[in-house]
Amino acid sequence: MSHYRVGQGWDTHRLAAGRALILGGVTVQSDLGLEGHSDADILTHAITDALLGAAALGDIGMHFPNTDPLWKDTKSAVFLGHALTLVHQAGYELVNVDSTVILERPKLKEYRMPIRESLAATLRIPLDCVSVKFKTAEGEGPVGERRTAEAQAIVTLRRMEP
Ligand code: C5P
Ligand code: MG
Description:
Number of helices: 5
CATH superfamily: 2-C-methyl-D-erythritol 2,4-cyclodiphosphate synthase
Distance between the termini: 13 Å
Order of helices and strands: EEEEHHHEHEHE
Helix content: 25-40%
Structural class: alpha+beta
Strand order of the largest sheet: 4-1-7-5-6
Number of domains: 1
Strand content: 25-35%
Radius of gyration: 15 Å
Bound molecules: cytidine-5'-monophosphate, magnesium ion
C-alpha cells in the first residue's frame, strides 16, 4: 500500500453584489462577493475536494448536497473539518496544502497570512504547511470580467503508522 497520496480540487462560484467574499474562512473587503447555497468559500471548497480526492472518498457534493437545507449558509470550515475527519478515519494524515485563488479584484496579498492561519487552524497542521497563492485572469474570460472567481488546491496525505 502506498505511503503517500495526492489529491486535487477546483471550485468556482459567481460574483454578485450584496454577498460576502469569504476565502479560506476570512472575510475580504470587496464590492462583490460569492454567491452560493453555503458561504460559497471557493478556496475552502477546493481544499475539501482535494482532501476527499486524495483518499478517493468522492467529492464535496456527495457528502454535503447543495439541495439539502441542512447545509444552507453553512460555514465551509465545517465541510473542511469533516473531510479531514474522513481522511483520518481512512488512515491518512495531511502533510501539506498548496492552493491558488483566481480573482480579478481586489488584491488579496494582505490577506495571505490571515487566510493561511485560518486554514492551518481548521486543518490542524503547521502554518508552513499551508500555501495560498493569488492570480488575476488578466481581464479575460468570466474571471477577468469579474463574473466569477475560481480556486484550485492540491494536498499530500501520508499513511499513519498503525
Ligand atoms: O495575475 P497576476 O500574475 O498579474 O498577479 C500578480 C500578483 O498579484 C500575484 O502573484 C499575487 O501576488 C497578486 N495578486 C493579488 N490579488 C489578486 C490577484 C493577484 O494579490 N486578486
Ligand atoms: Mg463551492
